[in-house]
Automatic annotation (TrEMBL):
This protein's name: MFS transporter
Main localization category: membrane
One Pfam family matching this protein: MFS_1
Transmembrane segments: 21-44, 50-72, 84-103, 109-131, 143-164, 176-194, 226-245, 265-289, 301-321, 361-379, 391-410
Locations listed in the record: Membrane
Positions of the Major facilitator superfamily (MFS) profile domain: 16-414
Signal peptide: none
Keywords: Membrane, Transmembrane, Transmembrane helix
Organism per entry: Roseateles koreensis
Keyword check for Transmembrane: yes
Topology in the lipid bilayer: Multi-pass membrane protein
Length: 424
């Protein structure tokens, strides 16, 4: 990717860090809600009389509604501004987590899951755009990458909380949801102090002025802008990159314990201990990614990360599934994925689209990714039980594919000038 990074990294003001933290909490709440939901449903099982089918339905509902929330929220963020959308989503998330924490009937769990899924999905693309638009030139990558650090911190926090309340049944589930409720309320209050994105306001003003002066104005209520001309290739490329690369990350997140227990004969407690160590490595890798993403060497780091990512998937494929190969898979994935996975999608999504299409594009690629992940999750357990070699062959091919298109295609795309409105 061309000529955007100076050798000397600029300083970042407290105001920019504030935006990065408060908008970036979308990633914290995203990861926190997903991990909390998985544990809390198990803890609620006896108290609410939940069947395994209902637990599956609630888990699938969260994923699917996240996808639709991202699609809708991303578009609304481009049309009406960042601030109003992520304020509404925080209000909704506050309601949803409160309903989860104080639920007394099964229908309340379904209602809360629907609200939470839609709101965290809608919040994420808009918040990422806000971070990039308020960051100083030369530091946009670092501040967007900071959101991934928050994502990892959320997982660590929720898993630590799970250890403390895991034997408390329904009360433990309520405590876990109360943690997210308190975070959502705090973020809602603090986000009220943030002004609208200056870059979005300026782009919208230019667009309105061009229409007033008689210039041809595109209908911002349609997706024509992203489905033609220079914006379609990056949209397709990023959808493929994020969607396919996420298959590996999603497998590690949802099914690592199943792989250890069913494929390698390892106890759940041992798998959990390995998972904690992997999380530590992931956080360290995310911090390093922050430090290098705005440097000219970013694509070198991407290539190294991609090779490690591919190597991680191939170890169980070549040497068979056992505790050692699964540990290699997770640790190499933690490092490689930080430089050639979702964090790079977040960066590229800010750079390859103009301001008034930025969160729309992220919403579309997020929608595609989450739907693909939900579909893959339907067959992954069967692959693990019947023969995990097929699973790791697919994952190796998937990550090799995304590394190639990232290096040869996306990485060569020109960065869009945010000063130019998306006019035909």
């Amino acid at each position: 990717m061309s000529d955007i990074h100076s050798k000397a990294l600029p300083g970042i003001s407290r105001a920019a860090w504030k935006v990065a933290l408060l908008a970036g909490m979308a990633s914290y709440l995203d990861a926190g809600a997903i991990v909390t939901n998985g544990t809390a449903l198990v803890l609620y099982k006896e108290s609410f009389g939940l069947s395994l089918g209902q637990i599956g339905e609630l888990s699938a509902m969260l994923t699917f509604l996240f996808a639709f929330g991202a699609l809708f929220g991303g578009r609304m963020g481009d049309r009406f501004g960042r601030r109003i959308v992520f304020t509404i989503t925080m209000l909704g998330l506050t309601l949803g987590t409160a309903l989860m924490a104080f639920a007394t009937q099964v229908w309340m769990l379904y209602a809360a899951t629907a609200i939470i899924g839609l709101c965290i999905g809608a919040d994420l693309p808009v918040s990422m755009a806000m971070i990039a638009e308020e960051a100083p030139q030369g530091a946009k990558g670092r501040l967007v990458a900071f959101s991934h650090v928050l994502w990892m911190i959320a997982i660590c926090t929720v898993q630590a909380l799970q250890v403390l309340v895991g034997d408390m049944g329904a009360m433990g589930a309520r405590i876990m949801w109360l943690h997210l409720l308190m975070v959502a309320v705090a973020v809602l209050v603090l986000r009220s102090t943030l002004p609208e994105s200056r870059e979005w306001k300026a782009a919208r003003h230019r667009l309105d002025a061009s229409a007033h002066d008689g210039a041809t104005r595109e209908d911002l209520g349609t997706l024509k802008q992203l489905l033609r001309g220079p914006f379609l290739p990056p949209l397709v490329a990023l959808a493929l990159f994020y969607g396919v690369a996420n298959l590996s990350a999603n497998t590690g997140g949802q099914f690592a314990t199943l792989l250890y227990t069913e494929g390698a004969g390892v106890s759940v407690s041992t798998a959990g201990a390995i998972g904690v160590t992997v999380l530590i490595v992931s956080v360290i890798s995310a911090v390093i990614f922050m430090r290098v993403i705005d440097k000219p060497s970013r694509m070198t780091w991407f290539l190294i990360g991609g090779l490690l990512y591919v190597a991680g998937q191939s170890v169980p494929l070549i040497f068979g599934v056992n505790q050692t190969t699964l540990m290699c898979w997770q640790f190499l994935q933690a490092v490689g994925g930080a430089f050639a996975g979702e964090p790079m999608w977040k960066i590229w999504s800010q750079e390859l689209f103009p301001t008034l299409l930025r969160s729309t594009a992220q919403g579309i690629t997020t929608f595609f990714t989450r739907i693909l992940a939900a579909m893959a999750a339907l067959v992954t357990p069967q692959l693990i039980v019947s023969g995990p070699s097929t699973l790791f062959a697919v994952l190796t091919a998937a990550v090799a594919f995304t590394t190639v298109i990232g290096w040869t295609w996306i990485g060569q795309m020109p960065i869009v000038d945010s000063e130019s409105p998306p006019l035909g």
